[in-house]
Records
---
Amino acid sequence: MRKVRYGGDYNPEQWPDAVWDRDHELFDLARIDTLTVGVFVWALTNPAEGVYDFAVLDRIVERAAAEGRSVCLATGTGAHPPWLARAYPEVTRTDFEGRRHRFGQRHNSCPSSPAFQRLSAELARRVAQRYAGSPAVVAWHVGNEYGGACYCDLCGEAFRAWLRQRYTTLDALNAAWYTTFWSHRFTDWAQIEPPSALTEHWRGPDHTAFQGITLDYLRFMSDAMLANFRAEKAAIRAHSGLPVTTNLMGMYRPIDYHRWADDLDFASWDNYPPDDTSQARMALAHDLMRGLKGGQPFWLMEQTPSCTASRDVNPLKRPGLLRLWSWQAVAHGADAVLYFQMRASRGACEKYHGAVIGHGDRSDTRVFREVADLGAELERLGDATLGARTPARVALLFDWDSWWVLEISDGPNRLVRYLDVVLAYHRALWDAGADLDVVPVTADLTGYDVVVAPALHMVKGDLATRLEAVAARGGSVLTTFLSGRVDVDDLAFPSDVPGPLAPLMGIRVDEWDARPPDVVNPVRLGSSTVESRLIFELVVPDGAEVVGTYGADFYAGTPAVTRHAFGAGHGWYVGAGLDGAGVAWVVRRVLARHDLLGPYADLADVETTVRVDPAGRRIRFVLNHRTGPVEIPVHAGGVDLLTDTRFHGGQTVKVDPYGVLVVAEDR
């Protein structure tokens, strides 16, 4: 049966056969159809160099096939085994402080280690060769949650090779890094060191004397781990044409997932929100992951059915949240809903991490019942949403380079964090019910009526020209403070701020003021007064219309928000760190011009999204994130795919607390 895949990470190698029997009984009860196996079996399948033993993994895969379940088969390289670190000490990482690690943990492999590169790819090759013909295997899972930087000599050598390829000459590198400052001009490639606590950083990872060096090392390390992924994928490809992925981590700063997108056959990610009120944040992360592959559906590879074990405090999901958040993933493009973990481990650091099957081995717990009920709902849904896409006319630009350079820069205010700004503008779009894509700055923007680019600190390539084209044909482009500041090398544009965005925005910024968060400058927007904090740019209109003004300090009465007519459209500029109400005021006016406010824009925490299936049918999801019920008018007639209830346009429907509607709208 074609349906949204349902299941998750399963580690039967930790258990005797009798437990396996019980597991599969419970999997049947919960409608579990897909298992991710073999994620951490390197020490089991490759117990010594040149020695391979697949007996246990054979039985795991064979049992899944016999039970009629699909397998997402991992290469097992998520953590290297003790013998590898003993035989090749250079395989372990050197940290930011310059300390060479010994064996331990999991993210402890140097991506530049020849031994790690060779032996991880060889294990991937053998796994693919052995299981390519298994009827159970539907996808390959490489590594696990890539992350963690290394600063060893091997990485230093690889960094210098990466720089040679990027810049070709030392003159070009010196120019990009602005090395005439502080007598840093390099005259030999060998003089270049990885930026760490022992070199350019004196107050931690975000404080660097030379942003260009640190920026390039962030890019290099992301590429180095991508090279590890590519090597394993190539080894798999020699034996199998099935799709290959790795589990990403949403808005994870160390790795630029846009640089990885072309190498992923499909995107997948692990969703572990920090609290029970992260629904907007999760929506942004889902949209970001979907945007990696141009809007293709993704897999929710991991989520907890109850609680995590990785934080100081690990709250339990309230009753109903598991169902609601799983449906939210489907609403934003998930074609798989999977858990970590299927059975709770008895020992080590994740023994208290939530699981479908707990230590008591019971099927009558609240968590298991919720998992089983959701499995039944997904079974009823069938293939209705598979391959469906989001018909977005709004794009939110997300840029790792801007994230990195904004947060490693000295000035104007280190309390301004890239994600905070992006989350604020996404939250306003989410509250307004706009269907949107989260896309890289290199994306084709021709299909969007509105482009929102918060804190677009770095402007690369022809982006400014493409944004102008959006406005010229009648669209709206919205950007904010600290945008248009630097080029691809993190060098300030030799022009007025906002650099190449100035013609579109119709302004210049001569000065900027930064204050601690307890300093508030009121901003007047129409008949409303909102608050702004942290950053206050002094905006000088150069053709732009003043929309909002500051209310305090020596720049009281000067522009804080502007709108500039450009072609048939507009460029909006927000020069102040507006509060949520202020951001919402601006965003809703931009959306209203294009008739893009959602049908429930005035109902807080009632989320609506649309997916369009391959046949053109619109499927509307309505998600009630409130702890109480809400009554809503039906936007368009159709059938709720979860209950077979028919709705008529305009009919009032009650949605329960944490309730979900999945309405296939009439054509």
Note: DSSP finds 17 helices and 27 strands in the chain.
---
Amino acid sequence: MYRYKYMLKAELCAAIIFAPAAAMAQDAATAALPMETAGGDVAAAAAKQNTSAAAPVKLPMEAFAKLPFVEQPSISPDGTHLAGLFAINGQQRIVITPLVKDAGKQIILGVPDETSVYSVRWVNDNNILLGVYSLIRVESDRWYVSRLLSVNRVSGEVQRLLPRMGGQNAADVLWVPSDGSNEILVSAQDSIYTNVEGFWPSVYKVNVETGTFRRHVPGKFDVLDWGADADGNVRLGIAYDDATRRSTLLYAKEDSRGFRAIERANLREDERLNIPFLFIPGTDKGLVMKDNDDEKTIIVETDMATGQDVRTVFEADSGDVESVMLSYDGKALLGVETSEAGEKIWFDGKLKAAQEQLEAAAKNADVDIISFNRDQSKLVVRISSPDNPGLIYIYDTNSQDLAQFASVNEQIGNRRLARPKLVQYKARDGLEIEGVLTLPKGRTGKNLPFIVMPHGGPWAHDTLTYDYWAQFLANSGYAVLQPNFRGSTGYGKKFVDAGKGQMGLAMQDDVTDGVKWAVEQGIADPKRVCIVGASYGGYAAMWGVVKDPDLYRCSISIAGVSAVRREVNDFGNSVRERLYRDQWREMAADFNAISPINGVDRIKAPLLLIHGKKDVTVDHIQSEKMHKAMEKAGKNVEFVSIPLADHYFTREEDRKTLLSSMASFLAKHNPAD
């Protein structure tokens, strides 16, 4: 979520994030992309994923540090090219690569320094759209800035879209055409001053090939967000008043720009607007994700004109609906993804049939359709398992041929690693907690050196999928528990709300109770327990050795938050300042009382701090200050500051430093052998 500020020099918005952009293009000829392709039928290709090693073999650290071959892969509408974030020479690069012969050249672009690519999508057969953001420092504060880039696969030319916009957010893509044309709809701010008209975002028509643009819908006072239907009609706006914490949904009929208020929500009372993600063409009806009476997230059809629900479109047997998959033209709901281990359920006949056929062939693996072209004749499929990172395939739904595109991690290949499983245990107040337990392969599963690894967020959850940190630790001989403590998503609103007021308290106790459960089960050796985590998990790792100093033998915090007030309670000059303050006050009554930096005197266990200096999510200073406080108190602390690492360690060298530092520290303070 972006924070809109009252004060920011407008020229910095445009200049800082785009300063490296002119130097992004690289000579593709000097960086060969190591792709592997092989044709074959479904059963033969999928059989590779079912290969299992006869005996466990300990792999070197470098195998786990290797970057995934590709992330965010997206196939072109005509099915001839693939775009995504590829690992080349140990670094992520933006790549457009042909999938068929004589389809054109390969494009390779560098990612600007201290900039993250959060989305990769095709506009048409020849152009991709990149959403990027950066965190820039102005005086004593840091602000997120978002922008758009387009890349033409034929020329390789990079266009900076809306480059002169002076606001923080100029990258909210409302609509992309499905007819092959080049104009998209983008909502963008043109000022950072609330008394200037451009502060309230307007909707622009932007040509992704030429970069030209024109204003399509002018901004309205208090309206921060806009929405469009699948035909490019701007149909809704969302207004917000921070003084009252009230949000208003503005709605326009299909061929009208006459917006009227149709719904209001008091965010102070945790009310939510019913915002459609899909408009049913020719009607006032839309599909909405909302919570039902059991506080599960479901999909309903709603009459926008009356506000009445028409019918329930989908409700998962268990868990929440987390995301939806729409048709290429945006007019049909093809499927949903649920919180149940990221399961995808397809309604579209062609995609459902492909899923079922691939699952039948790959019986011991997970099949994930991650991208498809306009007519769903070409699919990008990942076949993986919780104990293997998997293979990427291109599947032809017409011929039913499956062609291997690449191994996600060629050093691991088809090896079966440690097999995770879901476990349940009760917290001390009786709340049922689910976690992912990974035991070292080939071990008895009794009296093991143990690591509890709470996830980041905290509004997230761990699932039964491949996790390179957990696998690395299990490969090193440790049992690993990843608890989905109260406040985690994926278990309904009631479970999320159970975390309110409990940050550092019951949320942390759920982690502790997971350790105690593992000890009671005979899995964990109570004298050999460490806590490891990143981001919020890094906070929990530090706070764990403050709150329960006799439980842990050591702690590793990666990009963790040591001073909670500084990190999450500084909302000065934000348009949603009062709302944010209210929300975080619900998480804890006293931020100082639950900040690890204020509890250093209670820490007994050695602490390792790891943080990247290019982190644009959690400031590097969080670990710096904790390190100084620990040293001043005479505590056992090590600090590994990685000069070029970002929050997600998207450089292979940085992952090597991360994992080797963890391994050395654990070998010293909690050896597995």
Note: Residues 652-669 form the longest helix (18 residues).
---
Amino acid sequence: MGQNEIALEAQVSRKVMAWRLATGLVQGLLLYWLYAAVRDAAWPSTAPYLMAPLMTTLLILPVLLISSLGHLAPRQVGAWLLVALAVLLVLSLHDVWRGLNTHPLLPNSGRKEVTSPSALLVALSCVFFFIAHTLVLAGAQERKRIASYNAYFEIAWKLAIQLLFSVFFVGALFLVLFMGASLFMLVKLKFLRELLENAWFNVPVAFAALSCAMHVTDVRPAIVHGIRTLLLVLMSWILPVAVVLVTGFLCTLPFTGLTALWETRHATSVLLSTAAVLLVLTNAAFQNGEAIVALPLRVGARTAAILILPVTMVGIYALGLRVAQYGWTSDRVIAAACLLVAFSYAAGYLWAAYQYDTWLAPVALVNIYVSWLVLAVLLALFTPIADPARIGVHSQMARLANGKTAAAKFDFYYLRFEGGRYGRAALEELKRSTGPDAALLQREAASFLAMEDADRWHPPARSTAPVSVAANMTVWPAGAQLPDSFLAQKWDALKDNQKPDCLTSKDARCDAFLLDADGDGKPEVLLVDQSRMRAGQLFAQGGDGNWAGVASMAYGDVLCPPLLEKLRKGEYSLVAPPFKQLNVGGRRVAFEPSAAPVVECSTLK
């Protein structure tokens, strides 16, 4: 046992261990309470400005406390947690105020709305506090506002490995519990399986186990150090492969041009990911600047440090083109923030790569100061300073006002479901529009304002020209005509999950089969999307003259080309089901014959 491990064992006493386990258990119990409130649509889940801060705080603050115990003095722990709590409250209250995280408990359930912090807030708050906690622990350890890079390196990797293996420990624990439940089931004992089906057991146990794992990894620094060293060595030997691939990609661009790159519509995200991989692998080779590194890795790290800049610049250019064409959106604002951070790293690493008298030593300085920039950028994104929703809505409205976006092509969906309170305010403004396109803007704005939050998962199909339903259909049998009432119907009123895209979008095509499925002498229309992206849908005309979906065709049958070919040729017959359906309280229960022969698609000819 090394001296560092002995010192830490003495520092992290049994009392600290008890506090950590108690913190994890209380965290689990309180999170279960919030889960039960959401499940039952009860208080505090129905109080937005209470629920989101509570959930965000309970997810992050106890982990900071567990990690701080034994490493910070009690007064320092209290001060740090108060600062962290203040930041969490500001971020989560602004998240609620934006109006993007309130939703029905169940779609179309008619129950109360519940509130939770947005997934993006939780994810980026974890990044924010990982960086901030590393800075705090390193500063407290060396009693400096800006600690040495070695202290940051040691603590950051220790925390990362602690969290990684703690999550692994929790997963392994539950695998063993489920194994035990299966064993007891062999002798007809159901108590453990029933226990594992209850959130009141799972949630507290999971977080208590997480705190236990964090403590065990904390008092065994030699093990963590060994795992870290092995991980960094393995990652560093991936660096030459990444350098060769990225260099090859950049060398092909002068010959292939950038057009194909932009046509993917996700070039910026891929380029950002590439820059992040180069950054991580370069640091894996550099470590704390004192490691002995083989010559191929030194060359690879220096080359990677240079490559990050051109990759980032191509990403900036790609984002600039999208913004120039379509304006800012929330995703593009976040991408711009990521590119700002990436450019800061890239410029700093390029400078470090050309300091030939040292082994990338300036990388340490760049990492420290860019980490502060990351904290500032994240705070700006989740406060009104640079709220992506606000910037996106204002950009889209400005493009509409100056004629860069035609009213017929304007994205009302973005305002309603991704613009938060800013988007809804913009839609209210459009309801009072005047001018040549006022009727269209007012109608669409009113329509989207009337939508429920659950409708965000079924965005309306957008088209750039009037849709001709007849032009989108290939009618079978050949030469047949769709009913005039079917072609004349206004399909926009029907929800998108109840109709194929060919009814509302000029870019979609369907096969339309005319058949009398119910035997009433009137034809029904079976629509099968030619892209084979969804099940077939059968439409029938009601007594009011309107057409609506009445049944569906199994997706497996849609994916069977011989079956569809026989339908086109009219080689089919309509048969009654062998068993009638049950009507139980208005719910239809159909019987599937257990002895019916199954005809595989491959056998159809």
Note: The two ends are 74 Å apart (CA to CA).
---
Amino acid sequence: MSQSPSSLRCCFFLLFSVFTIVTTSSASPSPSCSSSSSSTFHCPPFNSSPPYPFSTSPGCGHPNFQIQCSLPKATISIKNLSFSLLHYNSLSSSLFLSPILNPNHNNNCSSLRLSHSIDLTGTPFRISDSSCSRLSLLRPCSPLLLPNCSHCPWDCKLLKNPNRILHGCESTHGSSLPEQGCQGDLLSYLQDYFTRFGFEVEWDQSQDPYFIKCKDCNGVCGYNSTHPNQDFLCFPNSRSESLLQREKKRVDHVAVLSLIFALTCLLLAVSVGVAIFRSRRGTFLSSINEEDPAALFLRRHRSSALLPPVFTFEELESATNKFDQKRKIGDGGFGSVYLGQLSDGQLLAVKFLHHHHGATAAATEHCKAFSVKSFCNEILILSSINHPNLVKLHGYCSDPRGLLLVHDYVTNGTLADHLHGRRSKMTWRVRLDIALQIALAMEYLHFAVTPPVVHRDITSSNIFVEKDMRIKVGDFGLSRLMVLSETTMTSASSSDYVCTGPQGTPGYLDPDYHRSFRLTEKSDIYSYGVVLMELMTGMKAVDQRREKRDMALADLFVSKLQMGLIGQVVDPLLTVEDNGGVAAVAELAFRCVAVDKDDRPDAKDIVEELRRIKSRTRGVDDDVANC
């Protein structure tokens, strides 16, 4: 008979809790650090017993704050160096310390008996800014008489910068101070200054997280010397000792009741475990025969004979070496793309739709539904198109472990890589040819496919480049079939549209579509116009390094064109080859991003215009060659 693992874990946890409560109540630390026992104790410079976090007894407080009480002043040891406590500021928990110097120190260089800087790095203490500021006011009188620096290097360093005596103050210096206030014997002055006034240190709680919760203790905080990595110990004072005794009795009763409850829980877990096991076993058996929802959706929308081949998850996992990060070749709009090699040696691109870990249940369900929709949408569209400038779909995999699409593997990166990365620079003729290929792919989607397809995400990152600089447009996750509703068909609008929420890449998104929620083929034309501008300028569609009004390339390009300053944004590599074609393409790009979608050309007009520009450019090149 199987039991529920979660239920058993719950019961074992309760049993362990009962055991912990009983043992803790019997092994509570004795109040050896009672604050009442030292209420009349006086330890200068404190008015009574040293307050938290300081202590005079081993085991009370933290070892870094142990005080040795002596007259006339108490002492503290920090990093193996002893200090006298001159003053304590209870409001800021700061101390004024004076280093205890060796009276027998033999220093042939000067009267200063401190032969190195005072370094509190790595301790809960921090030298105050005020002490550093006071030191910055000190300087020797001119002319500066340095000792033999080869024999007395420390003295020379202090005379040049007295701040060196406190580590962390070196950056402050007084080289621009006036002559007033200078010291003739600076080293002797430092000796006397530190003996009489010392320097101020502050307790830096951020460097001592051990005592952060100690403020919750109503008694005295103590150091857990048995288990230093555990929390502090809270020793009760005289007023709480009687409460502690009553609390122990209450804990004993709670322990007995908890033990009874744990045994009851254990018995219930056995019966609940059997029920859960039978329920999950039935759910698992029924899920084996349940068809994947993506496959059902695809079958309802398209004949299975027209769908691409179906891969198993294991096949694609093996082809990508278990989706090895070293094989990741990019990130699409909704998934990571990996290089896969099938068993026959064919290289393909495998897109794994993103999983959203750590999201809420509602957000996870929403993301899952959106991913399946995008997944099925791309399969339906790519299985119905065939064009040399469009990525071909070779198959898909719909599995509970992930949704995967298998595409052509284009070996030469994206157009964005070539324009904005470190790829080889492209000539104007190559760029013009790429612009024409993209337009041909758009013309095919808008006019040759029934119903027409709007890509909705034509960007330089979704245009892939072959070795011979031929291109393929990919990533159809946002694409839409222009299937018109009855409301749209009876509309008086001059152009057909589909009403849908705006989606796309910032910088390429059609503002008319964003404003009206009406998607038409002219939305692709706007995105294409921005790609034309990228081809001409080599700039990114959105660049936050540019001024706010010029952050979007379309705004910058149109502004320069209207002022007759288009030469300021054209890629400098193209100026030598400009035979009139650049100006003509700039005018075409301007028309593509017109605010009113009806003023934009369609894909057929763009193809015809680019072919005319290309033929004129070739004719001028031939004339130049003949000359």
Note: The mean pLDDT is 76.
